[in-house]
Amino acid sequence: MTNARPALLLLSASLLPALVLASVMGWFFINEQQQRIDAGLGERAGILAGALQRELDTQIQLLSIVADSPRLDLPVSRTSFAETARRLNDQVAAWQQIRVSNDEGEVVLAYPALAASAPRKVVDLESHQRLVETGMPIVGNISIGHGGKAAFAVRVPIKRKDRLRAVLTAVIRPEMVSQMLYSSGLPKDWSAWVVDSQDRLVTATGAPELAGKPATDFARPQDDLVVLPDGATLRIAEAPVGETSWRVRIGLPSSQYAQPAMHAVFFLIGASVVTIVLSGFVAVLLYREMRSRATERETLANWQRMDALGKLTGQAAHDFNNLLMVFQSGIDGIERRRADEERVTRLLGNMRQGVLRGKGITRRLLSFARRSNQGAEHLDLDVKIEEMTPLLKQALNDSVVLDIHMPGDIWGVHADPVGLEIALINLLTNAREAMADGGSVTISARNVDDGAVEDKRLKGSFVALSIADSGKGVAPVDLNRIFEPFYSTKANGGAGLGLTQVLGFAEGNGGTVRAASLVGHGSAMTLYLPKSMIERVMKSSDVPAPGMPRHVLIVDDTPASLEAARVALEDNVTSLHAATSGIEALDLLERHPQIDAVLSDIMMPGMSGIELAEKVAKLRPGMPVVLMTGYSDKLEAGAQIVWPIVMKPFEQAELMKALTSAHSSVPDLTNVIKLDAHSKN
Asked: What is the CATH number of the domain that holds 580?
């Protein structure tokens, strides 16, 4: 899932802008298309209004010609008017009736003649009055006549010598307008209707019977749309009919108006799908590329680890060959001149120094590889540094001054004492090499309260142990890499394992290390070690020494190691018993009840030394057990061991001290139930 996270981030990062861009493009597309539809709809309404205006103008012109005819000179003969009107009616089919009315609105002449019961006043008196007032031709509103049928009037003045004498009116049925709407070429699913100044319906496509009624009976407004009686919704446009008070309205189905939006939605969905597919494809390619690069990095890291291991084993082999040479020459010298006590003593001294050097090399290797703090214990730092002072001075030379400042109230720390020794020696060795012409090294310590360490990974209180030198310093470009394995700024190209061990020691004990340097003015390395929760211990001179066991059982599956332990103890105990396995050791314990201590190797086939110690604690509660080992994977994994441990190779004094102090660390395991009886060391 961690490897897939960058791919998911890439997918999101590529998909979101694409969706936003597609949405913006879709919005512009919809807006542009709908604007074009509205513009086209308005243009159609304007064309239809223009055509209707021309038709009405034609009616006015024809009627004006009649009005100017001498046949309508007053007094007008009814016979002459009837003949003229009949001929006009035959020529102009749209004229339903021709009338002459006075300025009061009373119909004087009419063809066809009005029925005896018909009123003599014009129906649309408002338009008649306007003509009388203005003297200009006019198109009246739609009206419902005496017979219940809708019609509108086209009126022109009858003037003689610029004086209004009468009003000539042509009553026209709305079918004329309906025919024009149907012949305008509108799509079949569109609608068109005409309203007068009072918003009454002149005519409408699909509903001519509604003429004279309110326009809302045909198209009811609803938001930006109108609703027809059958429930259909329309998007409308409106245009005025010339100088008249009429208006033409055209509507197209709202579904057609929404088509661009639907197309844009489909486009957006399609673009999103394509984007998702492409992004997924890219994410898969990226994931594969990351896997490939991770494999390459892992391969390179493995190669680097193997190279580092090769260098490490090569150096260790070189150092151990030198030590073996010391032992080989010592053995040869002793064999040749056994009677020469002085020479034998000198050779034994060289071999003893070789053992110490070998132990130091082994401890360095284990400290370099260690990932746990299995050797950690309470340390009074001031006491430990004081004990180490001669060793620390040996790591320097006569041209370097060592200055130690340890406050009296410094806290104890929880750390591996061996690792601390090696870390300080490595730091002092580095400081010495940085001061070829001499200088000074200062070791100081201070208490650091909880939260004061500038590292979010560290919680709790720490002791800051600083080693500062007055050497040449480290360049900033190298300062961040000095803790890398085999990275070195030494002129001779020596391997840089020292600071790697320091970092491993600090982190393995729950702390860290910080480096600071100023080129030409020196460097400072600060170890942050966790504060110990144990109170300050008494000095060894104040603690009574327990007694040495008299009958010891030695357990080791390696004969040479078993014999070495026997030789170290044979002059200090009453009796020794030997076993090569845990099972044999338990059998000896049953057969020899006088055995009062056990010394066992940890790494043994079948039953490990730790398992043997647990069984001894149950079988013989209170019996001291000391474990010995050169290396243990359980210890390196961080297993908590309650018995004293001596590291091979050990001196006789170390072994005697462990056995005499084993009484104080005997655990009570009589009530402990072991869950995993088959665990192996």
From this structure: 3.40.50.2300
Residue 91 counted as domain residue: yes
- Could you tell me what percent of the chain has a pLDDT over 90? 17
- Where residue 493 falls (left for φ over 0; alpha for ψ -120 to 50; beta otherwise) is left
Q: Which residues, other chains included, contact 605 with Cβ-Cβ below 8 Å and sequence gap of 6+?
A: 557, 581
Sequence letter at residue 571: D
257, 286, 314: which is the final residue of a domain? 257
pLDDT average, residue stretch 512-525: 87
Task: Assess whether 346 and 424 both reside in one domain.
Answer: no
Looking at beta carbons, which pairs linking 505-508 to residues 24 or more positions away fall under 8 Å? 505/367, 505/370, 505/415, 505/416, 505/419, 505/420, 505/422, 505/423, 506/423, 508/370, 508/371, 508/372, 508/373, 508/416, 508/419
The pLDDT tens digits of the residues spanning 223-266 come to 888 998 888 889 889 999 988 889 999 998 888 877 776 766 77
- Distance between CA atoms of 272 and 266, rounded to whole angstroms? 10
Backbone angles phi, psi at 556, to 5 degrees: -160, 135
DSSP strand pairing (247-253 vs 107-111): unpaired
Confidence of residue 11 (pLDDT cuts 50, 70, 90): low
- Residue in the block written with tokens 């969905």: 269
Whose structure tokens read 């408002």?
126
- DSSP, collapsed to helix, strand or coil, labels residue 337 as coil
- Give the E-state strand segments of 429-559 in sequence order: 439-448, 462-469, 512-518, 522-530, 551-555
Which residues form the domain of 309? 261-357
Residue 120: exposure state from Cβ atoms within 10 A (0-12, 13-18, ≥19): exposed
- If you average pLDDT over residues 657-671, what whole number do you get? 65
Find out whether 194 and 177 touch, Cβ atoms under 8 Å: yes
Q: Say yes or no: 278 and 416 in one domain.
A: no
> In whole angstroms, what is the distance from residue 53 CA to residue 194 CA?
12
Residues 6+ apart with CB under 8 A from 282: 10, 11, 14
Burial of 629 (0-12, 13-18, 19+ CB in 10 A): buried
Residue 577: in which H helix or E strand, if any? Answer: strand 575-579
> Which of 505, 530, 555 is the C-terminal boundary of a domain?
530
Kindly report the CATH number assigned to the domain that includes residue 474.
3.30.565.10
Task: Say which DSSP state 512 is in.
Answer: E
Query: Does residue 479 sit in the same domain as residue 391?
Result: yes
Q: List, in sequence order, every beta strand (DSSP E) within 233-304.
A: 233-240, 247-253
Assess if residue 362 is contained within a domain. Answer: no
Domain count, the chain: 4
Instruction: Kindly state whether residues 325 and 418 are assigned to the same domain.
Output: no
Lowest mean pLDDT among 390-399, 566-575, 624-633, 634-643: 634-643
Taking the C-alpha atoms of residue 627 and residue 407, their distance in angstroms, rounded to an integer, is 36
Has this prediction a pTM greater than 0.70?
no
First to last CA, the chain: 35
The Cα 295–Cα 2 span in angstroms is 15
Whether residue 237 contacts residue 252, with contact meaning beta carbons closer than 8 Å, is answered with: no
pLDDT tens across 153-166, in order?
999 999 888 888 89
Backbone angles phi, psi at 68, to 5 degrees: -85, -5
Please state the length of the chain: 681
